[in-house]
Amino acid sequence: MKKSIVSVAILTLMCSFLVGIGGNGVPVYAATSVTSSKTTSTVTELKYEKNIKGVHKISLRQYLDKVHNGEKFIVFIGFKECSHCRNFSPIMKKFLKNVDQRIYYLDYGPTGTFKNASKEEINDFYDTFTTPYQFGGTPTVALFSKGKVISMTVGDNTTLDDLNHLVSDSEK
Question: Which residues have a Cβ under 8 Å from the Cβ of 34 and sit 6 or more positions away?
Fold first, then answer.
């Protein structure tokens, strides 16, 4: 019982959102707060996985290599146990049908890419989100270029237009 309460608490924290971001003219297209009214989802974990079919799963090491090599790429950070990620997944499904660009997926969940990562890799991940951005949870979709976040969306109220703005930003 105690173990499941701890697990729920950890998942709740992992599903929190970016707060107090933006500034310096860096676009943030959608944001919700931790107190979002959408805390449950009618989208099952299986449906989530179907909705995000088409993303290219990468390991934490691959993600870090892309950032440190200065590559331009879009990454979706989420996980199936997160109700906010599941709420967002139908939008990602629509987006994936219309985007010509590769979208990478970093599984932030308890059995995902962080499970076997070193403390250094995990700390390095959080360091990739710096001023004006601080990573606070999922779902997050971010555009990286030259080792920095150029623009991003966050939260389960992200729209298709928000995601399309990321693609437009990547073409600049």
Answer: 16, 17, 19
